[in-house]
Specification:
11 helices; Arc Repressor Mutant, subunit A; 262 residues
Length: 262
């Protein structure tokens, strides 16, 4: 009676799975360049032909791509499949912003809770670094830097959950909301107490996670998003009022010029 043969996995399959796991967990992020072939083969303990075959497998899935001038880079496929269609719809349907913020409240509340439960020492080190960078940016008058470090802080929390879906969904959602975050922070500069409120909210989230207090972390994250929702709504109303006032001024100026000519 014939015996079933044991299927020995190919080395290239094992290497591809290892690299794929790094992409899923966020150790390799979109835009990151893979180490040079020689170094990566030594690190993984495989031959360069096996490594090339593994990279080709990932390329066929759209996870990596080679760029002109050399180098293999991680793509944003895991995030862009969520990001691209929603970005188009955000422009056509502004009311979707409220739905996205509602979803963000749910996602970030859970992320903060799980980060408080699951974060490793390495996660907390990264969170501390992101928190410090964000505080420095908020103390400086640089809206672009404030927005990018704000996103980095929240992404560090998402990845500290050790749930790959939350990590990647959080990255896609923050990328989708980036323009709104920048707009919101720009508007809040005109309100003296707003920046200190944001800093204290972020500090509350950071403290609850580092002190391993899941319920407090969730509550702090939800309070923060509630504040963001309200302040963004105010920002959009202020922008709409300014546009209306500018249109009226333009119309009145045109009418005045016409009457002067006549």
């Amino acid at each position: 009676m014939p015996q079933n043969k044991v299927q020995v996995p190919r080395i290239s399959d094992a290497v591809a799975a290892s690299l794929e796991r790094r992409i899923l967990e966020g150790s390799l992020k979109p835009g990151d360049r893979l180490p040079p072939e020689r170094e990566l083969a030594v690190e993984l303990g495989v031959s360069r032909p096996s490594l090339r075959e593994a990279i080709q497998k990932l390329a066929s899935k759209g996870m990596v791509q080679s760029r002109q001038g050399g180098g293999t880079y991680v793509t944003d496929r895991l995030e862009s499949t969520f990001f691209d269609p929603w970005q188009d719809m955000m422009g056509a349907h502004p009311n979707l912003r409220e739905d996205l913020l509602e979803f963000r409240r749910m996602l970030e509340g859970q992320a903060a809770e799980w980060a408080a439960e699951r974060a490793t020492d390495a996660d907390l080190t990264r969170l501390n670094q992101a928190f410090e960078a964000m505080n420095q940016a908020f103390d400086a008058d640089d809206s672009e830097r404030r927005a990018s470090t704000d996103i980095d802080f929240h992404q560090a929390i998402g990845e500290a959950t050790h749930n790959v879906l939350i990590g990647h969904l959080s990255a896609a959602l923050l990328r989708l909301m980036q323009d709104n975050i920048r707009l919101n922070l720009g508007e809040l500069k005109t309100i003296p107490a707003a920046i200190s409120l944001l800093k204290s909210q972020h500090a509350a989230i950071h403290t609850a996670i580092t002190e391993r207090k899941p319920s407090a972390a969730r509550a702090a994250a939800e309070t923060h998003i509630d504040f963001v929702r309200e302040s963004l709504a105010q920002s959009l109303r202020s922008a709409a009022r300014r546009q209306t006032a500018e249109r009226r001024l333009s119309a009145n100026t045109t009418d005045f010029s016409a009457s002067s000519i006549s």
